[in-house]
Design goal:
Layout lengths: L6 E6 L8 H12 L4 E5 L10 H5 L4 E3 L8 H11 L3 H16 L3 H16 L4 E7 L3 H13 L2 E6 L2 H4 L3 H10 L2 E4 L2 H10 L6 E3 L28 E6 L8 H9 L7 E6 L5 H10 L6 E5 L3 H10 L2 E4 L14 H8 L4 E4 L4 H4 L7 E3 L4 H13 L1 H18 L3 H16 L4
Parallel strand pairs: 1-2, 1-4, 2-3, 4-5, 5-6, 6-7, 8-9, 8-11, 9-10, 11-12, 12-13
Length: about 425
Amino acid sequence: MREPVRRVAVVVKGWPRLSETFIAQEVLGLERRGLKQLVVSLRLPTDKTVHDLNKAVTAPVLYLPEYLRDDPKRVFNGVWRTLGRPGFWRALGAWLADLTRDPTRNRIRRFGQACVLAAELPADVAWLHSHFLHTPASVTRYAALIAGLGWSFSAHAKDIWTSPEWELRGKLASAAWGVTCTAMGHRHLESLAPESGRVELLYHGLDFARFPDTPPARPPRDGGDPTDPVRLLTVGRAVEKKGIDLVLDALARLPTGLSWRWTHIGGGERLPALKAQAERLGLTDRVEWQGARAQDAVIAAYAASDLFILPSRQAKDGDRDGLPNVLMEAQAMGLPCLATRMAAIPELIGDGTTGVLVPPDDPPALAVALESLLRDPARRAALAAAGAERVRHEFGCDQGIDRLVVRFAESLAATTR
C-alpha cells in the first residue's frame, strides 16, 4: 500500500506580508520541489497589496486567533480537545516555566494559539517549522509538545537579537534542528545550542527568475544637471533599525549645487515623523514617499534609480538587520549600494569593491560617501557591475531551498504520527 504524503506546517507571524518576500520565496520553492505544506499564520493579513510570490503559493493557510478574546469558543475548544493528551502536560510545564520569566499577556496568548493549532492540525501534518525564533517559535514549540511532533526553525534577525538568551537556549534545546541566514547569527545561535551542528547556515538568497537577466543600462548622471538629477532610492520599513532618518540627515548635508532626487519605498510607524523631518530640513520638494509597494513596483524602482542607500543601525532595543534582501535585490538589478558596516551586511558587500560601507549612525560619513558617489557615475557603474556579479554567483536561493528539501525529507521519514 502506498504511504500517504505527509505535510509540514510552516508557522509564520503573518501571511502574506510585503516585507517578508524571503519567506514566500522559500515556501514557493519548497512547494515546487514537491514538499506539501500548510501555512499557519498567527495573525490576519494587514497589507493592502500582495506579492505575486504569495499568490503563486497553493498551500492552504490556517489563521489562528490573533488575540484569544477574538474567538473564545475556538480557544476553549482547542484547550478542551488537547487537555487529555500526554503532550498537553509537557507543554503546560514548559509554558509555566517560560511564564515565570516572562509573565506577559503575549506569553498567555501564545499558549492559547498553540492549543488551537495542535487541536486543528490535519492528520497528515507530521512536522512543524517556524519562521523566526521569537513568538512564532513559541507557538510552534508548545504545539509540537502537545501534538507529539518534532519541529525546526528558520531564524533571521530581530528574533535572534531581541530574544533573551534563556529563551533561545530553551528553543534550541527543544527543536530538532534549525537554519539561519547570516554567519553572524549562526555563530551566536551555535554558542547557545546544546551541541555543535544544531543550527546550519543557509543564506536564503534570491530567486533570480524574478529579475531581468541583464541589469538595465543607466545614463551617467553626475548631479550637475538640474533637469536630470541623480536618482537615489531606499527600500525599507520606516523603523529605527533601517536608519531612514540618517538618509535625510545626510541629504541635508549635501552641497546645494548638487542635483538629486530621493525616493523611499516602505511602510512603518515612523513615516509621519520622517516626513516631518524632511520638511524641517527643507527637503520636501526633492523626496518622494511611495509607501509599501508590491515586488514588481519595487523592481521597477530599482531599474529607474542610480544609487541605493540603506544605513542600517542597531536599534535601542537591540533589534538589527540580518542580511537585508533589498541590498541583494538592488545589486541583482545592477544598482550600486551605499550601506553601513552593520550586522551581516559586510558578508554581502565588500567596501570599495562591490559597494561602499560607512560606520552606522554617522550622518557626516554617510554624506561624504554619498556626495562622492553622486559625482562619479563611472565609479557607480564599476561597483554595480561587481556587486551584480557577486550576488548572482553567490547568493542564489536554490542551494538553500534544495538543502531544506533534504532536511524536511529526513525529518518526515523519521517521524510517525
